[in-house]
Amino acid sequence: MRVIFIHHSCFLVEVDEKVLIFDWFAGDRVNGYHFHGVLPEYEPDTPVYVFASHKHQDHFDMDVLYWAEKYHNIHYIFSKDCKMSPNFLRKHGFPTDIREKILYVGACEKYKVDDLEIETLRSTDAGVAFYVETRGASLFHAGDLNNWRWEGAGDIINSSMDRNYRGQINRIAKKHINIAFVPMDPRLGQHRCLGIDYFLKNTSAEYVFPMHMWQDYSAIPEYKKQISNGTMAERIVEITHENQVFEMKEE
Q1: What distance in Å separates the CA atoms of residue 251 and residue 247, rounded to the nearest whole number?
Q2: What number of other Cβ atoms are within 10 A of residue 17's Cβ?
Q3: 13-23: pLDDT as tens digits
Q4: What does CATH list as the number for 2-247?
Q5: What is the dihedral of CA 111, 60, 38, 143, to 10 degrees?
Q6: Spatial separation of the C-alpha atoms in residues 143 and 152, rounded to whole Å
Q7: 69 and 42 Cβ atoms separated by less than 8 Å
Q8: 20 to 30 A Cα–Cα from 216, which one of 33, 36, 89, 230?
């Protein structure tokens, strides 16, 4: 498998002849940031699967629908909160048949798109997380499913967040996961690694990519040094820049 870190929480995965793209948005969509990730070009008949975990502007961009003009075998798997009415799509210039290419998904459900087996988890923020299996390969993209422990939120809120996050991760704890994409948000300060730490300790994911880092990747090597279990530390993939390419070996 080939993984490309596009930017923020957007990753592209090439598996077999398919291309899976998670949580893409144009680099100028978020105020105060400019992301530089660029998607590679593929042949028009390439099977392309575009996932959006929720509608936040740093995870979803309706311009992905324009990709159908180039890729004839494209499928969209969007969280239900991204739903767009036929009138809205028509108003923005999309053909009426674009709806046939979109599957809107809810939390804690299972779906099948071609040979992709998709299971969703409930986010602790908005929308869903995705667990995807295809021809023996398995991927997990957390979206905004994380242990969001904010200073000043209070013990009741933070305890509820912790409980809900653990409950969702436990749903996939025994599943085979080749590659996982999990938040490590620097805005959480000392708590930025809470979610990814629990994920590492309670799943057997072979490679874990930190994400949602707002272009600050400094916490990754620091976190790896803090992990006493060397084998666990080796599962963390060090991201250093946008458009970074990784050739992954399946264990």
Answers
A1: 13
A2: 11
A3: 999 899 999 99
A4: 3.60.15.10
A5: -60
A6: 24
A7: no
A8: 230
